[in-house]
Amino acid sequence: MSEQIHGPSPAGSVVLNLGANIGALILEADASLLGAEIEISRADLGAGAGDHAVHAHRTHSMVRERHTVPNPRYDAVYPDLEAGRYTIWRDAETPDATITVVGGQITTHTFSRAVGAEQS
Q1: The domain 22-110 is classified under which CATH number: 1.10.3470, 2.60.40, 2.60.90, 3.40.50?
Q2: Of 57 and 23, which is predicted with more confidence?
Q3: Where are the beta strands (DSSP E) in the chain?
Q4: DSSP letter assigned to residue 31
Q5: Higher pLDDT, 111 or 12
Q6: For residue range 64-102, what is the model confidence (pLDDT) as tens digits?
Q7: What is the rounded CA–CA span in Å between residue 84 and residue 22?
Q8: pLDDT for 1-48, tens place per residue?
Q9: How big is the chain by its Cα radius of gyration, in Å?
Q10: Cβ–Cβ contacts within 10 Å for residue 80, how many?
């Protein structure tokens, strides 16, 4: 089976529904991560630390090129997230950061996994 190649996202192609308990996360990346799937998981639902956190339910989003002026951006967008704390995963076993998504807001975080690192 061949891998599907996704082109750049046109302006207005991402809709973010924000509400009292619903926010969104935008991971800002660089061109070296184009096409990478970056996983996140809830960090505040009793998963605990260690092995439990590694095996927590995860969701992922692909880093896509976004046509912006004056230069393109490379972002992974996670819409419709319940407010709370989330772990951003560097790879299958290594957390990169823990961020807080606030209802009614867009949270941004810069993600810069080293080129050549394992993709999740």
Answers
A1: 2.60.40
A2: 23
A3: 22-29, 37-42, 58-62, 64-66, 73-82, 84-89, 95-101, 106-110
A4: G
A5: 111
A6: 998 887 888 999 999 999 999 999 999 888 999 999 999
A7: 9
A8: 445 555 555 555 567 889 999 999 999 999 999 999 999 999 977 555
A9: 15
A10: 12
Report the SS3 class of residue 53. Answer: helix
Q: How far is CA 5 from CA 8, 36, 74, 111, in A?
A: 10, 11, 15, 22
pTM, to two decimals: 0.77
Closest to 31 measured CA to CA, from 72, 67, 77, 3: 72
Report domain extents, the chain: 22-110
Residues near 98 by beta carbon (within 8 Å), at least 6 away in sequence: 43, 85, 86, 87, 88
